[in-house]
Amino acid sequence: MSSTLPQLIDGEWRQSQSRDTIDVTDPATQAVIARAPKATPEEIEAAVTSARQAFLAWREVPAPERARLMLRYQHLLKEHHDELAEILARETGKTFADAKGDVWRGIEVAEQAANICSLMMGETVENVARDIDTASWIQPLGVCVGITPFNFPAMIPLWMFPLAIACGNTFVLKPSEQDPMTPNRLAELFIEAGAPKGVLQVLHGGREVVDALITHPEVRAISFVGSVAVGQHIYRTGTDHLKRVQAFAGAKNHMVIMPDAPKDQVLSNLVGASCGAAGQRCMAISVAVFVGESKAWIGELAEQMAALRPGYWSDAGAAYGPVISPQAKARVLGLIAQGKAEGAECLVDGSDCTVEGYPGGNWVGPTLFSGVTPQMAIYREEIFGPVLVCIEVETLDEAIALVNASPYGNGTSIFTRSGGAARHYQHAVEVGQVGINVPIPVPLPFFSFTGWKGSFYGDLHAYGKQAVRFYTETKTVTSRWFDDSPVSGPNLTISLK
Question: Rounded distance, CA 390 to CA 127, Å?
């Protein structure tokens, strides 16, 4: 019998009083490996109240001590790296190598949180007026909430709570109900690192829990990563309740291939960027834009994609694992069928994919379409599966116009040997993250993750300096100290002279 996961409330791991649970299944077998509770209203209130009370003390802890907590935490994460990756692989279906990458990219953000003293430095000007000085101080907000997706159950929580807590806030994490075992283990290690009681809370559940958190009067800021519909709901609801919100949503990322690009590098990178993690990445390349004569490479691309073999997480030869759920598989297969019906040519068809020994898995084979137009559903919609569509254009400017017409703006890349073409592309394209001969340009955490347009709702992005600004307020202090000179009379102006 699979156990029901506990929740972290007020510094203790507690079994929920709720009778409603959500099955956590192995995507390769459909076996139930755990159950997540649906937090009750009383448990939500207890978690937020504890976080608020803990904030009053945690905000006064010196920044160097908060940094030392993060140093201990990132050390523990590295010690338990492979253990975390195995938990993650079992509940997401990711290959072990991919799961290790998920964990490591999260560790990098925890490392950056250990640099919080420098990140929270304010500014000072002496003598802004005669004998008057002004300084800015960076101070925490209060209780922050994080709502994370299924596809990166280690990396995305680690995008959020280490930096928020290092800034002096407290945090309530509501991870995806599809793979909550990894976030629970992250929280256990955080407590082991010495996190004080109440600084981090973990609640489980679905929409009801999310809505209760994003409307709670004690919550100051909300971080979200997930689908477009949910991102829009959280942004609208959170801001309607006067919260600060950053909501990362969908994407449709293009790779532009110039005729002068190194063909072998293009094809290798394109296959990996489209099918890695079964295409379940918000930064996956799902559209290949072949410029001019580069369209001649589509046949070789089909050969390389057809050679990919999905498999179980522990299969070292597997290129990727299953998609997360039967519902996700049905959606991907429905879009593949729609693409065929709308007239696209299916060069590689993964609709009938099977994996020996795992007949119940959510398998989708690598799928490649050519002859795609921007009006087709397989071009317009984020498929979130190992499906790549090819579009052919004659010029770089046509490619730029195509990318800029997309409602999304998460990531894009161009492969070329021309510095002029690369410079023109990176300047003209209306996308937040651009790769030059880099297929998935996710920046390291001393920069920020900067999606644009319909891929992001808010003003300040994840990790890096923008995240520190998101999780803090700036206070300016203007001061003057009087000497014993006689007072000339009342000052009735707003001048600082």
Answer: 61
Together in a domain, 266 and 340: yes
Residue ranges of alpha helices (H) inside 93-227 are 96-113, 116-119, 155-166, 181-192, 207-214
In a domain, 445, yes or no: no
Domain assignment present for 488: no
Within a 10 A sphere around the Cβ of 419, how many other Cβ atoms?
9
Residue ranges making up the domain that contains 123:
7-249+463-477
Q: What is the CATH number of the domain that holds 357?
A: 3.40.309.10
Q: Are 37 and 204 in contact (CB under 8 A)?
A: yes
The answer to whether residues 335 and 381 touch, using CB atoms and an 8 Å cutoff, is: yes
Encoded amino acid at 90, one letter: R
Q: Which of 23, 27, 25 lies closest to 35 in space, CA to CA?
A: 23
pLDDT tens-digit readout, 28-49: 999 999 999 999 999 999 999 9
Whether the model pTM is above 0.85: yes
Q: Are residues 157 and 40 in the same domain?
A: yes
The residue assigned the tokens 């730029």 is: 400
Among all residues, which ones are annotated catalytic? 282
* Tens-digit pLDDT profile for residues 147-197: 999 999 999 999 999 999 999 999 999 999 999 999 999 999 999 999 999
Read off the CATH number of the domain in which 188 is found. Answer: 3.40.605.10
Residue indicated by tokens 């532009």: 256
- Rounded CA-CA distance 90/161 in Å is 23
Question: Are 65 and 79 spatial neighbours (Cβ–Cβ below 8 Å)?
Answer: no
Are 161 and 199 in contact by the 8 Å Cβ rule? The answer is no
CA distance 317 to 292: 35
> Residue type for 225, please?
V
Contact yes or no for 460/466 (Cβ under 8 A): yes
Residue 302: count other Cβ atoms within 10 Å of its Cβ. 18
